[in-house]
Amino acid sequence: MNRKFISNSNYVFRKILNSEESLSILKNFIEAILNIKIKEIELNPYLTKKEKYLPSEEKFGIADVRIKTNENEEMNVGIQFIDGIYVQTKMLLYYSQIHLNQQEYDGNREFAKTITINLLDFNYFASKEYEKTIRIKTNQGDIQLEEIEMKAIELPKFRCYDRENMTEREQWLQYLKGCDEKTLKKIKQQNEFIRALDEKAEDYWIKEKME
To answer: In the chain, what is the straight-line distance between the N-terminal and C-terminal CA atoms, in Å?
Structure first.
């Protein structure tokens, strides 16, 4: 994984990305990973409001956003890194947290579909593909509830075979996985949002060292 985020990845990313000024970075990342176009995006306040009340083992998650796609579909999207312990439990707990925290919002918004993006810095599933979409349909009597959708991305399995012509998704995954300086320079030249994130990461660690 990119060494800039090796120390408690969720904490570092949350400090860098969980702010209004970083919404454009989150938007570009989510569009690339989910292959959608976003018309509107806003931070949901749950992580910031609740963090100080949560025990350390529950402080997972980078950002929780509400988006509206170009097709006017509204969704909640949560992003987290997962370490190698209790992977399935953490995926389900995080999904539950992101979906149910809609009760905390100000205003009268209806519940919307939730998708979580789970980033793994190790191989977990038996399949060779680096990405897995897990969907669970739930029923209550004769009523089918919202389908649970969780994406798991195993970064070690990701391979980019043409680094001269990377898609935005490939740029993001290569950056998060970690790459050589030549590839990093090319990615930052081609993707202003990754460049902005990388600069924020550099600045974070400079200030961290100074403190």
So the answer is: 25
Q: DSSP label at 85?
A: S
Residue 102's SS3 state is: helix
Lowest-pLDDT choice from 1-10, 13-22, 40-49, 156-165: 1-10
Give the amino acid at 51. Answer: E
Phi/psi zone of residue 58: left (φ > 0), alpha (ψ -120 to 50 degrees), beta?
alpha
Residue 123 has pLDDT above 90, yes or no: yes
Rounded (10°) angle between helices 192-210 and 181-190? 120
| pLDDT 10s digits, 142-155 | 544 557 899 999 99
The pTM assigned to this predicted structure is 0.86
CA–CA dist 106, 207 (Å, integer): 34
H or E element at residue 120: strand 113-120
pLDDT per residue as tens digits for the range 53-82: 554 544 568 888 999 999 999 999 999 988
Residue 89 CB-density burial (10 A; 0-12 exposed, 13-18 middle, 19+ buried): exposed
Q: Are 171 and 158 in contact (CB under 8 A)?
A: no
Count CB-CB contacts under 10 A for residue 186. 16
